[in-house]
Write a structure and sequence with these properties.
The chain is of the alpha/beta class. 47% of the residues lie in helices and 12% in strands. The protein folds into 2 domains: 164 residues, Alpha/beta knot (3-Layer(aba) Sandwich); 77 residues, Helicase, Ruva Protein, domain 3 (Orthogonal Bundle). A 6-stranded parallel beta sheet has the order 3-2-1-5-4-6. Strands 7-8 form a two-stranded antiparallel sheet. Helix 2 runs parallel beside helix 7 and helix 8 packs parallel to helix 10.
């Protein structure tokens, strides 16, 4: 049986391009208070330790000293199998957002077998559409007309809901299977997009819009590694046939691998 601490250990908070070091320290303090032990930054460089550590306090200073830092979001997400984006903005290409509490209900069956990332955007702009394309779901904090929560506050609300949901979850919840990693999905999407452009199903000028809808579709399905490899293999096979100087020659594809 997986206990609460083990479930919390499968969670990571990812701060994408945060600008204020104190907010990173506050996020570390909040995460540690709620039992979440992994904090990741997506930034070009590591900020000064002192302002981060001051806000983290000595109890969470070890999270500051063990920060994982990546230069881009795809690298940070490579090994995660469920990614949740947080957003206050709405747009045509964005997900239908869930409240943090509803999002946690959706996540609970995924936690026993999956690594989950909750990503937060920079203080001034939040996550972009390009950031959100890596997510399977989105969470938005319901507020009154004046929607102005800072980064640390948003992290606090989500971390609290995660801890509360895990502690009070029904112990007989059936775990969901392990899903495809972000790295596997991005490889699949790359081949799928190239295939759809090759047959003119999507035009190069509008492929971003169509790929956004396709990503949202597959996000609702929640693909396993096997699923992603099958789609990737079909797309790769198709592209090989399209590019082959001898269209009559058959390439062999077994188990999603094409030769």
């Amino acid at each position: 049986m997986v206990n609460d601490a083990n479930l919390l250990s499968r969670l990571a908070i990812i701060l994408v391009r945060p600008k204020i070091p104190e907010n990173i320290g506050a996020a570390a303090r909040i995460a540690w208070n709620m039992g979440i032990t992994r904090l990741i930054l997506v930034r070009d460089s590591l900020p000064d330790r002192e302002p981060m550590a001051k806000m983290a306090t000595h109890k969470a200073a070890h999270l500051i000293d063990n920060l994982e830092i990546y230069r881009n979001l795809p690298e940070a997400l490579a090994n995660f199998t469920v990614v949740v984006g947080t957003t206050a903005r709405r747009g045509r290409q964005r997900f239908v957002e869930q409240t943090p509490r509803k999002m946690v209900e959706t996540l609970l069956p995924q936690l026993p077998n999956n690594q989950v990332a909750i990503i937060f955007g920079p203080e001034d702009t939040g996550l972009t559409n390009d950031d959100l394309k890596y997510c399977q779901m989105a969470s938005a904090i319901p507020t009154a007309d004046f929607s102005s929560l800072n980064l640390a506050q948003a992290v606090a609300i989500h971390c609290y809901e995660l801890r509360y949901g895990i502690i009070h979850a029904s112990k007989d919840t059936t775990p969901a299977p392990k899903l495809a990693t972000s790295f596997e999905l991005e490889s699949m999407y790359s081949y799928l997009e190239e295939s759809l452009v090759a047959i003119d199903y999507v035009e190069k000028v509008s492929h971003t819009y169509w790929m956004s809808n396709i990503r949202n579709f597959f996000s609702r399905i929640m693909l396993t590694s096997k699923d992603a490899n099958i789609i990737r293999g079909i797309s790769k096979k198709f592209l090989l046939q399209q590019k082959s100087p001898n269209p009559g020659k058959r390439d062999k594809c077994l188990g999603g691998r094409c030769e």
